């Protein structure tokens, strides 16, 4: 499955860092995760996952600390977690996850972005059934065979372990995120190019020409929306 994790992350990180939006998005996500459970990643699995992903995007420590302290102090901001599903050019499939304090505003913005850029919103469940929630890790300087052996010895199940260029990719069930992470860290592997829970498409499609240009523009505009945290799709870029 040609997700090309490094290229996707580097492209998005470069764009986000130029606007500093990534920090605001992570601050909000960390705050919500910390407020919904204990503000300690060792006892709050959701917070631990968010913090690990923030680390791969080089989110400054003061952004993380501020969000956690805000949650500890019983911040009064409340956010709804929303998921929108829709279609882009040539029937491409898109999932948009958002955190918002104004559901009507976010729904209107997402719908308008789809509608003005060659896409359309679908009903709940119209797209998500074609994706699998997956724990993904990407690391360097270890072969897929070595990583697989390490995980087996640690009695950790992985859905798939393979190489993309110089990078080894691990796919696992979402409830295995912490187990995979701890098994790797026990062997001295603590730096990851990617460490996150994501939505992987069961099949990918290829777009070309104008359809590809429209699709990339649609994804860019969706990611630019203030309330949008993640955008997933099934296009092989």
From TrEMBL:
One Gene Ontology biological process: regulation of DNA-templated transcription
Domain TACO1/YebC-like second and third: 79-235
Locations listed in the record: Cytoplasm
Domain TACO1/YebC-like N-terminal: 3-74
Transcription regulation keyword on record: yes
GO molecular function: DNA binding
Alphabetical list of Gene3D superfamilies matching this protein: 1.10.10.200, 3.30.70.980
One Pfam assignment: Transcrip_reg
Main localization of the protein described in the UniProt heading: cytoplasm
Family annotation (SUPFAM superfamilies): YebC-like
Single GO cellular component term: cytosol
Keywords, sorted A to Z: Cytoplasm, DNA-binding, Transcription, Transcription regulation
NCBIfam families (UniProt xref): PRK00110.1, PRK12378.1, YebC/PmpR family DNA-binding transcriptional regulator
Family affiliation: Belongs to the TACO1 family. YeeN subfamily.
PANTHER family linked: TRANSLATIONAL ACTIVATOR OF CYTOCHROME C OXIDASE 1
Name the record gives this protein: Probable transcriptional regulatory protein ATY39_12985
The organism of origin for this protein: Rummeliibacillus stabekisii
